[in-house]
Amino acid sequence: MTTLTQTLADFTVETRFEDLPSSVVHETKRLLLDTVGCALGAVDTPSGKIALDYVDILGGAPHASVVGSSRRSSATAAAYANARLANVLDADDTFPTSTHFGNATVFSALALAELDRKSGRDLLGAIAVGFDVGARIGSWMGAPMQIENGKVIGWNELGGPAATITWAAIGASAHIARLDGGQANHAFGIGGSNSPQPTLRKWAESVEQPMYKYADAGWCAEIGVSSALLARLGSTGFKDILDGENAFWKFYGSPGHDDHALLAGLGDDWQILNTTYKPWPCCRWIHHPLTAFAQLLERHALRPDEITRVVVRANPFALTPIFREQRPGDWLSAEFSHAHALAALVHAIPPGPRWYDATTMNDPRIAAFRERVTVTAEPSSSNIAEWMTGGQWRGVPGGVDIHARGTVFSATADNATGDPWTPATHFSDAQIRRKFGVMTGLDADGDGPEELRHAARDVADIVMSLDEHPVERLTASLDALSRSMRAQGVAA
Predict the structure, then answer these.
(1) Which residues, in sequence order, are bridge partners of residue 94?
(2) How would residue 199 be classed by pLDDT, with cut points 50, 70 and 90?
(3) Same domain, 41 and 169
(4) What region holds the MmgE/PrpD N-terminal domain (predicted)?
(5) pLDDT value at position 1?
(6) How far, CA to CA in Å, does 54 sit from each of 50, 66, 112, 197?
């Protein structure tokens, strides 16, 4: 039986841009702009520089752009570097299976769009379809947590989000490479068989973080591109990788699967509409307490020097040692530190690469504030299973208690800023554009050198009207922005 595999493969290659609802087209543009911004913000980080140097070593035909630089490389190498860059700051979108899909989806599709000289409509269609494939397979396998008698008791021993990122890249690549249904079926088999190892449990237990966290988003994107190109050349893979007793969910280590979640509403219920955006560059689990913290700071005009103590009330997965760390030793660890995130926010550090540059990491004000932050459990989120729908979570409460002015200011956020399910937390187009500007080197108000402001605005305008342009228009504007960033010393 190849029912599940072939059905999803057919959807991947038969769906066209014209089939996308206007809301999905608009959301795809927003995701594209946000993801490109996250990549641009990382080009001057240690991990970003490694990605760029790695592309130089690989060489290859100059088929595709490497964002934030003057480099061009092969489609696989460009997809690798760009997707890795997009995940470096942990500022990229998060789907409610605890997965970042934008990085590999966007940049596998962009690399092949450049290789095959596709239109902006082609690129947008590939991103929407690829995202749906990854999100559906993630929902099919369920969230990466152990649930016993309706209670969450920890992370799965195996499984996790790494492979589903790859599946999104496979879907996007198969779509834009214009495979037929049979070739897409083989691309699924090739990519699924070569997915990353399920290292989430190892990541959850590690205080010292590797640069790729639980998976290198670059490799996920590269697997997607390679799978589509190999299938287009005639290479074969398992045709039933999603079917039968030994389907993908089982050999990847997921404790179960939900076939209904995989195909329900296929072509009608677009999963990209459920992705969440990050106003702050840190783990999404920190965003609920951060949302409550930001609300209290604004409501009561609290200043850093007035705050004597902050108690973060976190969900069960944000209570491990790395989330409690008050003295993160490097920027990777700081991305998971409640204390560092609150310190950067209260001191009005623009939420982008500056949160983790040497000036901020070594700022005595930041260090002193971190020491005043402790982390405990949020009682209302003790059972995350209550917040699950179809293998996805819909908000997980977190809060803060701020000790200042001789009193305690408290707030709890059921949804974090950037969640699409409530009007109060939905990330507006203006917020996405503002975040994009900060990632390119502008300040939080969008101010900066005129050339940089113009170049950043041009990219944003082109992305938001990409269905009217060829992909070359986008990459040319990105090249101009990269040159402007380099002139200002904020790019490689």
Answers:
(1) 276
(2) confident
(3) yes
(4) 6-253
(5) 55
(6) 6, 12, 20, 22
* The residue count for the chain: 492
pLDDT of residue 154: 67
113 & 208 share domain: yes
Q: What is the CATH number of the domain that holds 321?
A: 3.30.1330.120
Quick one: which of 490, 492, 480, 487 has its CA closest to 440?
490
Cα–Cα distance between 92 and 46 in angstroms, integer? 18
- For the chain, the C-alpha Rg in angstroms (whole number) is 21
Question: Which residues touch 110 (CB under 8 Å, ≥6 apart)?
Answer: 64, 65, 78, 79, 82, 123, 471, 475
Q: Take residue 446 and report the two structure tokens written for it.
A: 């969008």
Determine how β-strand 373-377 pairs with β-strand 307-314.
Answer: parallel
Do both 402 and 294 map to the same domain?
yes
88 vs 492: which has the higher pLDDT: 88
CA distance linking residue 30 with residue 404, whole number of Å: 38
Q: Which helix (H) or strand (E) holds 83?
A: helix 75-88
150 pLDDT exceeds 60?
A: no
CA distance 356 to 349: 10
CA dist., res. 131 & res. 28, Å (int): 9
Are both 352 and 245 inside the same structural domain?
A: no
Q: Which of 347, 378, 413 is the last residue of a domain?
A: 413
Boundaries of domain holding 386:
284-413
The string of pLDDT tens digits covering residues 98-133 is: 899 999 999 999 999 999 999 999 999 999 999 999
Q: Which H/E stretch holds residue 249?
A: helix 248-251
User: In angstroms, rounded to a whole number, what is the distance separating the alpha carbons of residues 347 and 372?
Assistant: 14
Q: Are residues 398 and 359 part of one domain? A: yes
Q: Domain tally for the chain?
A: 3
Q: Which residues pair with 99 in a beta bridge?
A: 95
Angle subtended by helix axes 450-463 and 429-440, to nearest 10: 140
Per-position DSSP letters for 35-62, written without gaps between them? HHHHHHHTTTSHHHHHHHHHHHHH----
Is there a single domain that holds both residue 256 and residue 306?
A: no
Residues 232 and 288 reside in one and the same domain: no
State how far the Cα of 453 lies from the Cα of 324, in Å rounded to an integer. 38
Q: How far is CA 213 from CA 200, 322, 443, in A?
A: 9, 12, 28
- The torsion angle over the Cα atoms of residues 218, 224, 230 and 236, rounded to 10 degrees, is 130
pTM over 0.85: yes
